[in-house]
């Protein structure tokens, strides 16, 4: 696969950048202006397939998830503005470090949401749908949470549901090396680590059926994960990346058959 942007590539040319990126707000543009050169110095990123990302229209960028910095690497590498939902706690920190993280999140286009089940999950879904209805790009991790062992876990069906419901194309992404650049639990990134971001060809999942069909959601999810696997080359875990259950009820829920969203 031929890279569209080499590690030491200059700032994006106008013709390689989506119109919405050129019209973005001052905070985002300033953040990108600072982050892009900094990322090239720290991570020496190798970006492939930028031309696979549609410049206009609603898209879902669906990526594997290895590190906190995935949510920085993808927006910086993408040729258009990519919105992703981030824990509201990232925006509420105090002191120098807290404010720095909050400003960093805003600079890369993050939107704060309160995580959890019930209404919080529905609010997050509504926010993502609203962005797609406006013709924007959102980034999601089908695995649900970061992989702590480097393997690629089974995808949850929420991404497919959103794509089938809105008609948005899904751009699969394989991120490589971010777990070495900033391992889970690390407070600071490691200098000199090489990071690769691969954008795959966009997927139209409409042929799987309506969003109301569980079979359609599962089939579309499996297609997304197969595309991500082809880009990342990770070992397949073959199971869901479950958060450890606390309490007897939650442990029972995890062993019962149910559709992961």
TrEMBL record:
Residues 59-178 form the Phospholipid/glycerol acyltransferase domain. The keyword Transferase applies. Keywords: Acyltransferase, Transferase. The keyword Transferase applies. It comes from the Bacteria. InterPro entries: Plipid/glycerol_acylTrfase. One of its GO terms (molecular function) is acyltransferase activity. This is Lysophospholipid acyltransferase family protein.
